[in-house]
Specification:
Length: 274
């Protein structure tokens, strides 16, 4: 089974490197719970055992993700005519999506007023928060930004929409561009040291700067600064995306404009902002 997992992850990494890392964790847990066997020896009883084990330890979101990982793994081998558990028997559990409260303009202004801009790390945080508010990007899209997408002469960038893979343009304010250029001057000096391509690098305690900031880092960052601003209600990076849409709606922007800005494939997804 370990060899089958290795081959699957090698294939997965050809188009989704970070996903392949996360998949390894859940596949190894599946083997730990169900035991080391040959691929064809796993059956629906093993999946039920694994799901029951997950339900005593993880949230509904983690259980859903772990289920998708197992389903995709067996589907990979089923499509190659291997004898194995049918992925059609593995049902992905439905969950109710969390509602993310929209950040208000007043809350946003309060948060950014508390972020220093004279040192590299808080300056990185300030630019990231400003970009979330100005552009409405998903947190994963923010983390995926590269240095090559940023130009001193343009207050915009072309990104790939995470869920559809289609290109879209994001635009930010003149104030944000000022801080972005201030950050870039220091960031490019760091690039000469570690050759990282990401616009936003992460920080590994005791190890220095990592090659790319991840979504969890942004979540912690938002929680920290929202707490400093005295905001009691939970605010997430996605709250800024909702805030972007609500702010444009209040400015009487057409629904089609909001749809394009958010990168929604269907207008149905944007109807909540009517």
């Amino acid at each position: 089974m370990q060899e089958k997992i290795r081959l699957y992850l090698c294939w997965k990494a050809t188009y989704a490197t970070r996903a392949s890392i996360n998949y390894r964790i859940w596949l190894e847990r599946f083997v730990e719970v169900c035991g080391e066997k040959n691929l064809e020896e796993y059956d629906i009883k093993d999946f039920v055992k694994y799901k029951n084990w997950l339900e005593t330890r993880y949230t509904s979101y983690s259980i859903q993700y772990a289920t998708v990982v197992i389903k995709n793994f067996f589907n990979f081998y089923k499509q190659q005519d291997f004898k194995c558990l049918s992925p059609g028997l593995i049902k992905t559990p439905r969950i109710n999506a969390k509602s993310h409260r929209a950040v208000t303009e007043e809350e946003y202004e309060k948060i950014i007023s508390l972020v220093p801009n004279n040192e590299f790390r808080p300056l990185r945080d300030l630019v990231a928060i400003r970009m979330l508010w100005d552009t409405g990007v998903r947190v994963s899209e923010l983390c995926d930004l590269d240095l090559t997408q940023i130009s001193e002469n343009k207050m915009s960038a072309i990104i790939l929409t995470k869920k559809t893979g289609k290109q879209r343009v994001i635009v930010w304010s003149e104030d944000t561009h000022y801080y972005l250029m201030k950050y870039m001057r220091i960031r490019l000096e760091l690039h000469n040291v570690n050759k990282a391509s990401a616009l936003f690098v992460g920080w590994l305690q005791g190890k220095g700067w990592s090659s790319r900031m991840n979504s969890r880092t942004v979540q912690r960052m938002i929680k920290f600064y929202a707490g400093r601003a005295g905001i009691k209600e939970k605010i997430t990076p996605h709250s800024f995306r909702h805030g972007w849409a609500h702010y444009r709606r209040d400015q009487n922007a057409p629904l089609a404009f909001i749809q394009r800005g958010l990168g929604h494939n269907s207008p149905v997804s944007t109807f909540i902002y009517q």
